[in-house]
Amino acid sequence: MTGRHRTSRLVLTNEAARHPFRRSLPPPVVVRARSDDQDWKLFLLSFAAFFTCFYTFLL
Fold it and tell me: 15-43 pLDDT, tens per residue?
């Protein structure tokens, strides 16, 4: 086979980006959704802290 072979780049590009500089950047990192368990823990921690503060002010 003679002629030029098209070689792919080793770095993945973001084809959705239109500007040449943004196209050279790696694709954006996908953030996975956090679980609902963390929301409940934060709510209970906040509730306990507020309840403790409010109760100590009443005494």
Answer: 666 788 887 878 778 877 766 678 889 99
Where are the extended beta strands (E) located within 1-59?
none
**Nearest to residue 14, comparing CAs of 23, 3, 5?**
23
Instruction: Kindly list the distances between the CA atom of residue 47 and the CA atoms of 13, 19, 20, 22, 56, in Å, as whole numbers in the listed order.
Output: 46, 48, 50, 44, 14
- What are φ and ψ of residue 3, in 5° steps? 115, -175
Helix segments in 1-59, DSSP class H: 20-24, 36-58
Residues with Cβ within 8 Å of residue 26, at least 6 apart in sequence: 11, 12, 14
